[in-house]
Write a structure and sequence with these properties.
The complex is a heterodimer of chains A (402) and B (207). With 402 residues, chain A is an alpha/beta fold. Chain A is built from 16 helices and 14 strands. Chain A has an 8-stranded mixed sheet with strand order 3-4-2-1-5-6-7-8, sandwiched between helices. Chain A has a 6-stranded parallel sheet with strand order 11-10-9-12-13-14, sandwiched between helices. Chain B has a single domain, classed as Glycogen Phosphorylase B (Rossmann fold, 3-Layer(aba) Sandwich). The chains are: A alpha/beta (402), B alpha/beta (207).
């Protein structure tokens, strides 16, 4: 096809390499774009056992050498990895029979690749800002953090359009980098409801019993154990919830706060009520989300809050802190419960409320599931993204680069 | 013939002797009818200049102002080097014969331009990390060595200033000796040697 719209996605993670939310985002976005007639080339980091090139549902995936020598530090590794990524993406783009129409970068982790490719091929660059350094760190405290933030600023400067996944992130990114209003565009993140619907009929009692006793309500946290995810707020709320309800708190994920959190639990003598499950595989996680009596997202900083959306797709009631993207996803008392951020009492109240009122729980679960299908469907998100590509290419066609 | 020279120092920014050396060479090349561009770094004197010598210079700076080391500084400056070189390439209707890269700093840009636009490059070695930091094999030094290695691997040809340096490149990086041309600096025949090499790399075309 001669006039086929083609895009080269740059992402430092793509399944089976999963570190955070970018990997599933790029996976579903790419697949849905391909279904909508966009030719997608994903260039990403290699992963043990994953092929250097494969075609997944019409998406061409290329995994490049991610610089495996020891690197001085993480940030320097990112730039070294980009040297390889840019080189291999350049060779790939030059070899394709159909020219790449747009380059689409995801976060600063592929900033230098995206910027370089834009200039050598003179094609428009789009960026999706999934998060910002200044938001993750609540300020810029070290030279590394400043450097990363300045790299993000440079990336958004070079981009034709900056895509953010929530209204909150649009205003945050505009503030953080001083961008003009018309450069920003909001496209929500999506969630795949089919993976949850597919296991709807399964008997999950055995699985549930691995995490909680039958008489315990299952309270689920899924996320990295880092400050901004607010998992320490949840841990501190445990005794307050237990005053009213018998529950088991299951914490899935790992991170630098793990030891600190374990110490808090030990000091409260509640080791039997809080289970640190570590990293669990996808199949288990999906089922755990289905059996959870409540899913808690107590983040202090949350650009979007995909984990809340997943819980809603899994028909698990959600309690979220009223911040960032979570504020937009959840409508209080309709699709979930919103609590004050960084507030143990408020969080304990929200969890208790959901666990003690079955009628209310069923009501918010049904509303939440409908909302997810209406607004956060990958098919619709891919169509919105395709329209952005087309409008950028329309503007580009009138520029002297065309 | 149209040639782009990459050098991280060029007057008025003088770090070592490379700045004067590139200035002399580029002036001589221009005198011999080569359309010569120098892409270099300056913190604030950025932009394009047509020098009286006939050499065209483009100075770029780093868009990222805070750094944690030479590596992050270099690896973010290279995209500006790519931008400058790509501008020359497209303005010249895609006719650039060769890029001559002095030392490792701008090897990443040269490698990308080669892979994207099929412009070959020459890696001209002033010094090697192995000599600058003898015995050092920290992740920092290894990263610089890996960039030097990439340069040797991807380059169409390599130049060394002396027989000794050629032998060192062969010894340390296992580069085939016939890929390396010895071009002694500060000799009357230098520019002729360089022109011969450029002609060899471009296949003798007038690009």
């Amino acid at each position: 096809m001669k006039n086929e719209l083609s895009v080269m996605m740059l992402s430092w993670e793509f399944p089976p390499r999963v570190i955070g939310g970018i990997s599933p985002h790029v996976y579903y976005l790419s697949k849905s774009l391909a279904r909508n007639g966009v030719k997608v080339y994903v260039v990403t980091c290699d992963f043990p056992g994953a092929p250097a090139h494969e075609v997944l549902d019409d998406v061409e995936v290329y995994r490049v050498d991610s610089y495996k020598n020891p690197a001085p530090d993480f940030a320097t590794w990112v730039y070294l990895m980009n040297l390889n990524m840019q080189k291999e993406a350049a060779a790939l783009a030059a070899s394709l029979p159909n020219k790449v129409g747009v380059f689409h970068a995801h976060d600063w982790l592929v900033a230098t690749s995206g910027i370089g490719l834009k200039h050598v091929f003179r094609k428009p660059l789009l960026v999706t800002m999934h998060s910002t350094e200044i938001g993750r760190r609540d300020g810029l405290h070290t030279d590394t953090e400043k450097m990363i933030s300045e790299t993000e600023a440079w990336l958004t400067y070079e981009a034709w359009k900056v895509i953010c996944c929530s209204g909150y992130m649009v205003s945050h990114v505009r503030w953080a980098f001083g961008l003009p209003e018309d450069k920003l565009v909001m496209v929500p993140n999506g969630v795949n409801t089919q993976v949850y619907d597919a296991i709807a009929g399964e008997d999950l009692r055995e699985l549930r019993s691995r995490f909680a006793a039958p008489h315990e309500r299952l309270v689920l946290f899924v996320g990295r154990l880092v400050y901004e995810k607010g998992v320490h707020i949840l841990v501190n709320a445990v005794p307050k919830v237990l005053e009213k309800v018998d529950a088991k708190f299951v914490i899935v994920g790992s991170g630098y706060m793990k030891e600190q959190l374990l110490n808090i639990v030990r000091s409260m003598k509640l080791e039997h009520k809080v289970l640190f499950a570590g990293f669990v595989d996808d199949a288990t996680l999906l089922r755990l989300q289905k059996v959870a009596d409540v899913s808690v997202v107590p983040s202090l900083f949350e650009p979007f809050g995909i984990v809340a959306l997943e819980a809603m797709a899994a028909r698990s009631p959600v309690v979220v802190s009223d911040t960032g993207g979570l504020s937009e996803i959840v409508e209080h008392d309709v699709t979930g419960v919103k609590v004050y951020p960084n507030n143990t009492d408020s969080l304990a109240w929200g969890i208790t409320r959901v666990l003690t009122d079955d009628g209310f729980r069923r009501y918010i679960v049904e509303n939440a599931y409908r909302k997810v299908q209406e607004k956060y469907d990958w098919e619709k998100i891919a169509q919105q993204t395709k329209r952005i590509y087309e409008s950028v290419l329309g503007e580009y066609s009138k520029s002297f680069w065309a | 013939m149209r040639v782009i020279i990459f050098s991280w120092e060029y007057p008025p920014r003088v770090v070592g002797h490379l700045a004067e050396d590139i200035s002399t060479l580029s002036t001589q090349l221009a005198k011999h009818g080569v359309e010569t561009y120098v892409v270099t770094y300056h913190d604030y004197l950025t932009g394009a200049t047509n020098e009286p010598s006939g050499v065209n210079t483009i100075r770029v700076t780093n868009p990222v102002r805070t750094h944690i080391g030479v590596l992050t500084w270099v690896l973010t400056l290279n995209q500006e080097v790519e931008r400058a070189a790509a501008n020359i390439y497209y303005q010249a209707k895609k006719h650039v014969g060769v890029i001559d890269v002095y030392d490792w700093h701008f090897i990443p840009a040269a490698v990308t331009l080669k892979n994207a636009l099929a412009v070959p490059f020459i890696f001209s070695v002033e010094s090697l990390e192995d000599h600058r930091s003898p015995g050092a094999n920290s992740p920092f030094n290894m990263a610089i060595k890996s960039i030097e290695w990439l340069g040797f691997y991807e380059a169409a040809r390599v130049t060394a200033k002396s027989e000794w340096m050629r032998d060192e490149i062969v010894r340390i990086y296992k580069v085939p000796g016939e890929k390396i041309t010895v071009v002694p600096p500060n000799t009357d025949s230098r520019v002729q040697n360089v022109l011969k090499l450029y002609a060899a790399v471009t296949g003798g075309t007038q690009d």
